[in-house]
Amino acid sequence: MMSVAFAMERRSPASERERSEARSLRARAQWLCEAGSHAEAMEMFLESLRMEPLESAAIGGLAWCLAATGDGAKALALLDKAANFDMGDAELALSRGRCLKEMGRLDEAAVSFDEAQSLDPQNPVFGYEQGLCQAGMGRDDLALASFEAALRRGGRYAPALDQKGACLRRLGRLEESLACLDQAVALAPDSPSPWFNRAQVLEALGRGPEAGRCYARFVALAPAHQEEKLFLARRKALEAGAELA
Questions:
Q1: pLDDT-flagged residues of the chain (< 50)
Q2: CA-CA distance, 80 to 68, in Å (whole number)?
Q3: Which of 79, 100, 132, 161 has a CB 3.0–4.6 Å from the CB of 105, allowing a cystine?
Q4: What is the pLDDT of residue 1?
Q5: What pTM does this model have?
Q6: What is the rounded distance in angstroms from the CA atom of residue 195 to the CA atom of residue 185?
Q7: pLDDT of residue 136
C-alpha cells in the first residue's frame, strides 16, 4: 500500500486521462466503502490520489476507510491537514462526520453533518448521512425527517429510499416501508441492502415466500464480510423454500 502521506504531496497537475481514471477509481472505491470493503477501497482511493493529488473526495474517502479500519486518529489528522489546502469545506465536514460516526462519536458526527448541510443545502448525501447518524442513536423520527429531506433534494436517491424504508419498518409503518423499498430495489437492483430490508418488511407482513426470495437475492449480492446478515438471510431463505445460488 502507498503511504497515506503520499496522498497529501503537492505534484504537477493531473492530465485529462489521469483525471478520468481517477474518477473511475473513486466511484468504485466509494461503492466498496459503502459496502463495507474498506481495505480494498483504501487502495483505490490511494491509487486515485497518485493520479490526481489533493482531490477532496478521495482524501475524504481515504479518511473514512482509516476510521472504519480502526485508525480514527490518523483519519482525523489527515482531514485536519487537508483543511490547510482549502479543498472544500462541505466535503471535509462530510468526511469528518463519517469518520466520527465510524468511531462511535455520534453526537459529534451529527454536528459535522449539520455543518456540511449548511454549507451545501442541496446535496442529498449530507441529509442521508445525518439520518444514518440519528438512526444509530435510536432517534428514528428525526432520522426519517433527514431521509425525507435528502429525497427532496436528490429525487429518487436509492440509499435514502432504502434507509427511509428501514426506518419506517422500525416505526411500524410497514406498507409505507414496502413502497420505499420497492423503489430502492428498482433503482439499485444490485445493491444488497434494499433486498435485506425489503425481506424483513415482507416477513413482518406475513408474506413468507416473497421474503425468502428477497433474502436469497441478498445472499447472492452481499459481500462476505457481512457475516451476521448473511447467516440470517441464508437461514430465512431456506426456511421459506427459496433457492440459493
A1: 1-2
A2: 17
A3: 100
A4: 42
A5: 0.81
A6: 7
A7: 94
Q: Cell numbers at residue 30, please? A: 466509494
Helix 38-51 and helix 16-35, axial crossing angle in degrees, nearest 10? 170
Grid coordinates representing 192?
Answer: 444488497
pLDDT of residue 2: 45
222: left (phi over 0), alpha (psi -120 to 50) or beta: beta
Nearest Cα residue to 195 out of 227, 237, 142, 157: 237
- For the four alpha carbons of 215, 168, 142 and 145, in that order, the dihedral sign comes to positive
Cβ count within 10 A of residue 122: 9
In angstroms, rounded to a whole number, what is the distance separating the alpha carbons of residues 238 and 244?
8
Q: Using CB atoms within 10 A of its CB, is residue 155 exposed (0-12), middle (13-18) or buried (19+)?
A: exposed
Amino acid at 95: S
Using CA of residue 155, residue 160, residue 161, residue 164, what is the dihedral sign? negative
